[in-house]
Automatic annotation (TrEMBL):
<dbReference type="InterPro" id="IPR004467">
    <property type="entry name" value="Or_phspho_trans_dom"/>
</dbReference>
<dbReference type="GO" id="GO:0000287">
    <property type="term" value="F:magnesium ion binding"/>
</dbReference>
<comment type="function">
    <text>Catalyzes the transfer of a ribosyl phosphate group from 5-phosphoribose 1-diphosphate to orotate, leading to the formation of orotidine monophosphate (OMP).</text>
</comment>
<feature type="domain" description="Phosphoribosyltransferase">
    <location>
        <begin position="55"/>
        <end position="143"/>
    </location>
</feature>
<dbReference type="GO" id="GO:0019856">
    <property type="term" value="P:pyrimidine nucleobase biosynthetic process"/>
</dbReference>
<feature type="binding site" description="in other chain">
    <location>
        <begin position="121"/>
        <end position="129"/>
    </location>
    <ligand>
        <name>5-phospho-alpha-D-ribose 1-diphosphate</name>
    </ligand>
</feature>
<dbReference type="InterPro" id="IPR029057">
    <property type="entry name" value="PRTase-like"/>
</dbReference>
<comment type="similarity">
    <text>Belongs to the purine/pyrimidine phosphoribosyltransferase family. PyrE subfamily.</text>
</comment>
<protein>
    <recommendedName>
        <fullName>Orotate phosphoribosyltransferase</fullName>
        <ecNumber>2.4.2.10</ecNumber>
    </recommendedName>
</protein>
<feature type="binding site">
    <location>
        <position position="95"/>
    </location>
    <ligand>
        <name>5-phospho-alpha-D-ribose 1-diphosphate</name>
    </ligand>
</feature>
<feature type="binding site">
    <location>
        <position position="125"/>
    </location>
    <ligand>
        <name>orotate</name>
    </ligand>
</feature>
<dbReference type="GO" id="GO:0044205">
    <property type="term" value="P:'de novo' UMP biosynthetic process"/>
</dbReference>
<dbReference type="GO" id="GO:0004588">
    <property type="term" value="F:orotate phosphoribosyltransferase activity"/>
</dbReference>
<dbReference type="InterPro" id="IPR000836">
    <property type="entry name" value="PRTase_dom"/>
</dbReference>
<dbReference type="InterPro" id="IPR023031">
    <property type="entry name" value="OPRT"/>
</dbReference>
<keyword id="KW-0665">Pyrimidine biosynthesis</keyword>
<keyword id="KW-0808">Transferase</keyword>
Length: 212
């Protein structure tokens, strides 16, 4: 596994940006001292290959029954393609919503009710988009064995959402691992470390406090 190398490259290439003093605003309205743009990973061959190899190994270990790799549009599609190639498995991908023309498909690619599908997304924040993809896949008769991703914040909301949906989840990298690596490297101060840790424990409370 290349976890430490991947985390180092994500930081060095500014794919993950940490800014405890000037937080970013997410689409949900939440403020965050970290911003993750994993779409950039496809621009770096060595990095994307390490990610694909580690995801393939992770899926083979956690979901050995997998017969199809699925990509969640749009950011999960290239990584799903690379993982499917490494595992020599068929691939499908899931659109955010059905097409408004042709056959109106939301799932592209072929699968049967006997297949065991693992869906891949790049990033899990609350899990909303990937769990919607799970629902769409199962609505079309597919069986989702589980979900994987490059990175997860491991926020309380995500844990609760996956639990409610009864969906297994195996991420490659997590926020606690990133935070540990950054603390050990000396890239952040002890004060910044505490800010990042506090945010992770309750992002909404941290956002409100920062705004005040």
């Amino acid at each position: 596994m290349h976890k430490n190398q991947i985390i180092s490259q994500l930081i060095q290439k500014k794919i993950i940006t940490i800014s405890p003093d000037k937080p970013f605003t997410y689409a949900s309205g939440i403020l965050s001292p970290i911003y993750t743009d994993l779409r950039l990973t496809v621009s770096y061959p060595e990095l994307r290959d390490m990610i694909a190899s580690d995801l393939a190994n992770l899926i083979a270990k956690k979901f050995p029954e997998t017969t199809i790799i699925g990509g969640v549009a749009t950011a999960g599609i290239p990584h799903a393609a690379l993982v499917a190639e490494k595992l020599h498995l068929p691939m499908i991908y899931v659109r955010p919503k059905p097409k408004d023309h042709g056959k109106g498909r939301q799932i592209e690619g072929r699968f049967s009710e006997n297949d065991k599908i693992v869906l891949i997304d790049d990033l899990i924040t609350t899990g909303g988009s990937v769990l919607n993809a799970v629902k769409a896949t199962e609505k079309d008769g597919g069986h989702v064995a589980g979900v994987s991703s490059i990175f997860t914040y491991y926020l309380p909301d995500a844990k609760e959402n996956f639990k409610k949906a009864n969906v297994k989840y195996a991420p490659l990298l997590s926020y606690p691992e990133l935070l540990k690596k950054e603390n050990e490297s000396g890239h952040i101060s002890s004060e910044q470390y505490n800010i990042l840790k506090t945010w992770h424990e309750d992002p909404w409370a941290w956002s409100k406090k920062f705004n005040n």
